[in-house]
Design brief:
The chain has 311 residues and is α+β, with helices and mostly antiparallel strands. The protein has one domain: Lipovitellin, beta-sheet shell regions, chain A (Lipovitellin-phosvitin complex, beta-sheet shell regions, Roll), CATH 2.30.230. Helices cover 16% and strands 52% of the residues. Strand 5 and strand 6 form a beta hairpin.
């Protein structure tokens, strides 16, 4: 995996703007009906810690190869404007910590150490620290506009000392792809769990979401609002999918995948703001990657966790 792909991978973020509001008085929690809506105020700040751990087992020429990757990212979200029918958010990268293992080889990189590091990838991580993106969302958490991507790309290239025009073009295209629609769709709107309709405790719904951005594989997940206590809603999620063919970006190469598996998770949402407070999901995948005309057996386990707090 080249330095550009590593820095892109570390930026895959896991944030969700989720929604609940008030209901009719005199009803029990089960009887109450909750309607979609974000309840945020200008100047409010929230800090989210996002963890993504992926373990992959390949079998090549009857030899098993184990790889793993873990990322811990800290993001600061600030509500900079209330537009009446939506909000403008400033999203700032505060910390980035990556651990990888490929067979017997282990590496660890931290954006906080970039100033004294000789590792070019770690220096690129440092370029992300303190960088910000702007996102406009409507009252249901749907993205309506984004800005700041060009500035972010330029900063990374300057910090990384990237002067070659071919490398600049490649990096710009890849970052625009992932920080544009890829970043928004896979890391904000993809985790807007709730439907537009009102809900009661015990009701369920389905939603199509990506397993992981690099796999380019969407699955249908079933959700159920299991409980509400002390203004915190609990949602369980589960999905099972049969063999599904798609494409994946593995080590910078596009490969054909045939995968099956399951996913389960639980999410806590603060009904007073509509924001996700914490969440965890576990995904198990099994199937094949087609590489150079050969089917390579593969098993994957993906664990994602998120926790947020008001500052």
């Amino acid at each position: 995996m080249g330095p550009f792909k590593k820095i892109i991978t570390c930026c895959i973020l896991f944030f969700s703007l989720l929604i609940y509001s008030c209901s009719e008085p005199g009803q029990s929690a089960v009887e109450q009906t909750y309607k979609p809506g974000l309840h945020l105020g200008t100047g409010l700040k929230y800090y989210y810690t996002i963890s993504n751990e992926t373990a992959t087992d390949f079998k090549v020429n009857d030899q098993e190869v184990k790889n793993s990757n873990s990322m811990l990212v800290g993001l600061l979200y600030e509500i900079v404007a209330d537009r009446g029918n939506g909000f403008k958010l400033k999203i700032t990268f505060d910390s980035i910590h990556i651990k990888t293992q490929k067979g017997d080889s282990k590496t660890e990189m931290d954006a906080a150490h970039s100033a004294f590091s000789l590792d070019p990838v770690e220096k690129l991580l440092g370029a992300l620290k303190g960088s910000s993106l702007s996102v406009n969302i409507n009252s249901k958490g749907t993205i309506t506009a984004t800005s700041g991507y060009d500035e972010l790309i330029d900063k990374i290239m300057v910090k990384g000392g990237i002067a070659d025009e071919a490398q600049k073009s490649q990096l710009r295209n890849e970052l625009n792809s992932l920080f544009g629609n890829g970043f928004i769709k896979n890391n904000i709107e993809s985790l807007s769990l709730f439907p537009d309709s009102a809900l009661r405790v015990g009701e369920s719904w389905t939603k199509q979401q990506p397993v992981a951005p690099e796999l380019k594989l969407d699955i249908t997940t079933s959700y159920i609002l299991t409980s509400i206590a002390d203004s915190i809603a609990s949602v369980d999620a589960v999905s099972d999918f049969n063999k599904t063919s798609s494409t994946a970006d593995i080590l910078g190469t596009s490969v054909t995948t045939t995968l099956q598996g399951n996913q389960e998770g639980n999410y806590k949402i603060d009904m007073r703001t509509g924001l996700l407070q914490k969440g965890k999901s576990n995904t198990s995948l099994e199937g094949t990657f087609q590489v150079m005309g050969r089917d390579v057996p593969v098993k994957m386990k993906i664990t994602k966790t998120l926790s947020g707090k008001k500052l």
